[in-house]
Amino acid sequence: MSHRCGVRQAQKEKTRRALLDAALRLLEDQSLSSLGLREVTRAVGVAPAAFYRHFRDLSDLGVALVEESLGSLHHMIGAILAGQDGDAERIDATVAAVAEHVCRYPAHIRFIARERHGGVRAVREAIAAELDRFADEVATDFCPRLSAEDWPPEDVRMLAELYVDHMVMTATAFLEAQAEHPGAAGASGASGAADVEGAVGPAGAVGPAGAADAAGAAGAEDERRVAATARKQLLLISLGRHHWRDG
Description:
Elements (H helix, E strand, L loop, with lengths): L1 H25 L10 H8 L3 H4 L6 H26 L3 H18 L1 H10 L5 H28 L4 H28 L27 H36 L4
Helix pairs in contact: 1-2, 4-5, 4-6, 4-7, 5-6, 5-8, 5-9, 6-8, 7-8, 8-9
């Protein structure tokens, strides 16, 4: 009996996972408010009635995607803030971690970027709640040092929100750079731009392989620009933090 229960539970989890994955794929080119329930179940190959064994409706599925999409980034950045000493080290580690996360989970970042101000209220509220928890963790990390500098709690929270907003903005910028040059995903972590000179033939024409290499090099350069801008912006926030109480 317990074995049959275990098999049923495993099948239930497998179907739930398939529904989430199918929705995420379908949401690459549309918003949640335009997605149909039958569209999702058809992609999985289950009856519409089976959907309701896992989610109340599509907004409930969207909230589950929010928790999945932001949960890992939330904990990853929290670990960076807790584990790095010095502004420069934190900035470099944070930008690199965001770039890697976008490379691994582009569909999740695309979903959050689109739905943060989208048409499904429950999902907007879930995203806002996750980002609030993220800001709470950042503020908790900052508090011991900033309290010693006479920062009031509301200013510490404001600074934390700045960092959180910047992380979301940076993730979106990396995503856009990767979308422009799909073959270059993750190139921001490369040691240098791809060398495309060898792809150019005698007449100067670029063949299919050469075009791919050229696109990869362009994508790598775009991602490096995003990373450089993100570091400068974080440095600007950091410099402002050090002089916030000067007046």
